[in-house]
Amino acid sequence: MMTHILQATAEAGANIALTKYWGNADPQQRIPANDSISITLDRTRTVTTVAFRPDLPEDEILVDGKRLVGPAGERVSRHLGLFRERAGIAWRARVVSENNFPAGAGIAASASGFAALTLACAAALKLDLSPRELSCLARRGSGSAARSIFGGFVLLHTASRDEDAFAEPLYAPDWWEIWDLIAVVSRAEKAVPSGEGHGLAPTSPLHTARVARVAELNRQLLDALARRDFAALGEAAEQDALMMHAVMMTSRPSLLYWLPETVALMHWVQARRREGIPAYFTIDAGPNVHILTLPPYHEMLREELQTLPEVQEVIPCRPGTGARIIAESEK
Ligand code: PMV
């Protein structure tokens, strides 16, 4: 007898936050403590196929060819459970996810991964969900994934209720050609995953001050985006990256994601800026440095970065499109 299979494939891009999501207002529902603004990236993408079938005893999750087990696997299973609940189905699923960026490059795959998984699950189970609902569901898997549902420049809202903590697109990818040169200085797995780090944010005496300041930086960013004012955008992004890392470093226990190479690159970016080159840095929960710049400087900066002893690889990204369904089938 033929097995009934509900299957879909979706694709999504990673994103770089200009103002960061760090710390939760509601950890259970993964509602962020503050609004954040990001750029969805064109180069760093994830393609995920999900197949719900009645004959599987448990969920099977493969990421870049490796079976995901332990807490990481359980997190994906919990996410699948949200969709099973909505569809009123108990079937387990096989998930196959591939990242097109080098595995272990220290680029968080959780945003693109959970955005692609969310869209694939909704399509496979034929759930009729609005982009806003998809964004809320993606957020339950990984906060930053809520933003990767959309392309271009995106705002994620904090809120007191699950259904109000959604992301929305601000501008399409072609609004502004900003480059994010991702300078990889280490490929090591991070010691403390961001999921755990969010829980530590309130233990820092700087957390409340940062959350208050981010509201002002978001206003500055919205204005900078509307006017295409790169200096205002870069200053806000660099300041919030520094504030987020100050919160991390002063958490108990302390989270110190920077390596000597990270700090060397931060100095390098600020030195280029003093020479009049529009370049700003931002850093996520890891040691790699994202250098934000404009054409025509991106080519020169990329070449220079590649010659630095601290840099293992540069991944040049531009604003990219949002998550999309590639295929769906019912067998
Ligand atoms: O979505 P998460 O749980 O991986 O958290 C994202 C954390 C940062 O990348 C550091 C900031 C952000 O807003 O993307």
CATH topological fold name of the largest domain: Ribosomal Protein S5, domain 2
Proportion in β-strands:
25-35%
CATH class of the largest domain reads: Alpha Beta
Instruction: Give the distance, in angstroms, between the N- and C-terminal Cα atoms.
Output: 12 Å
The whole-number mean of residue pLDDT values reads 96
Structure overview:
The protein is α+β, with helices and mostly antiparallel strands. The protein has two domains: 6-173 and 320-330, Ribosomal Protein S5, domain 2; 179-317, Alpha-Beta Plaits. Helix content is 37%, strand content 26%. The chain has helices spanning 70-87, 110-124, 131-141, 145-148, 194-200, 207-227, 230-249, 260-274, 297-307; strands at 6-19, 24-26, 31-32, 36-53, 60-63, 66-67, 92-99, 153-156, 167-171, 179-184, 279-282, 289-293, 313-317, 324-330. The strands form three sheets. Strands 1, 4, 5, 6, 7, 8, 9 and 14 form an eight-stranded mixed β-sheet that branches. Helix 1 (70-87) runs parallel beside helix 2 (110-124), helix 2 (110-124) crosses helix 3 and helix 6 (207-227) packs antiparallel against helix 7 (230-249). The longest helix has 21 residues, at 207-227. The chain starts with 5 loop residues before the first strand and ends with a strand. (3R)-3-hydroxy-3-methyl-5-(phosphonooxy)pentanoic acid (PMV) binds next to helix 2 and helix 5.
